[in-house]
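Anyone? Bumping this.
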Amino acid sequence: EAGVTQFPSHSVIEKGQTVTLRCDPISGHDNLYWYRRVMGKEIKFLLHFVKESKQDESGMPNNRFLAERTGGTYSTLKVQPAELEDSGVYFCASSPPQPGNTIYFGEGSWLTVV
Amino acid sequence: GQQVMQIPQYQHVQEGEDFTTYCNSSTTLSNIQWYKQRPGGHPVFLIQLVKSGEVKKQKRLTFQFGEAKKNSSLHITATQTTDVGTYFCASPNQAGTALIFGKGTTLSVSS
C-alpha cells in the first residue's frame, strides 16, 4: 500500500514568489493534516481536513497560506507571497476515518525561501 | 491552548548509556503517542498509550503513561547509534481535531 506522498520534496524560491505543495494521502484516509516544522522547533499543526471539509484551520499562520482538498482526495497548500520565515519542512499526514487512529506522515516538502 | 511540554530538548549520550525523555501536560490527556524523526526524515509512529498507568515495551524502548494521564516518558536502554533522532510525544487536542506535538527531544549518540 502506498504511503502519504508529497511533492515537491524540496523547493527553493525567492521571497515574494508563490509555491504550491501537494499531498496525496493514503487511500481511504478521510483525515488529512498539514504540519510544519521550522528548523529545530516543534512540529506545528496547521490544519485538518475531513474529506473535503476544513475541520480545524486554527494553526494556519496567516492569510498567505491557502489549503484546499477538492473532492476529498489530494490536498494542496499554497503560500503566496512567500516570506523568509516560511522556510521549513511541511509535512502532510493522513489517518483513517475512525477517531483515535494514529496518523501517517509523508516525507515532507522542504521549503527554503531566500 | 493545549500544550505538551517535553524535556530535555537535547541529550547526548555515549553508546550503551540509557536515555529518557519526558512529556508533561497541565490537562488530562485522552491518549499519548510517540514518534521518532530521523535526521532528514519524517516522523514515524512508535506507539500509542491510552490507559492510566500503562507501560509498553518495544525491545529496548519502554513507554509509560502516568496514573493521572498527564505525563509520559520514553526510556531507551543501552542506546545504539541507530537510536539517533528526535523523539516527539503528541496528544489529541480537546476537540479531537488535531494532534499536538511536544517540541521533541533530539538524541545524539557517540560510539
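Late reply, but here is one note on the structure posted above: Residues 35 and 44 of chain B are 5 Å apart (CA to CA).
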